[in-house]
Amino acid sequence: MGESQARTPIRIKIAEVGEAPGELNRLTAPLTVGDILKMLPINGRTVPAHGCVSIILGLKRGAEKPVTQVDAGTIAYWPRTGSLCIYPEATRTYGPVNKIGRVTGNLEIFKNLKSGSRIIVVPV
Length: 124
What we know:
- By secondary structure, the protein is mostly beta strands.
- The protein has a single domain, classed as Beta Barrel (Cyclophilin).
- The protein contains 2 helices and 9 strands.
- It has an 8-stranded antiparallel barrel.
- β3 and β4 form a beta hairpin.
- The longest helix is centred in the first third of the chain and has 10 residues.
- It is globular and about 35 Å long.
- The model has no long low-confidence stretch (mean pLDDT 94).
């Protein structure tokens, strides 16, 4: 699988806040990304968590190339909670996460979000 085939562009929309482009990358965690791609579009509510914005998916998937340090803009799956996490700043994570992609622009919309904000993740 080539680099361009492994990346799936997405758009993350937060009601009454804005939108951000991003991408999911199968090379970083192929099984996790494959499961999440099947779930798109994802329509949920934000849950501010330890240095991230979390969206509960209900997906049960174990650790896959787990990391505990992420860069600003990292999109990750947190196996412990079955959640998609977006990190607006570089941080050490609360527990191991599977890096699955990144936000490629407008990262500031994820800072200071209130719990319960409507969030939608769609393929482009």
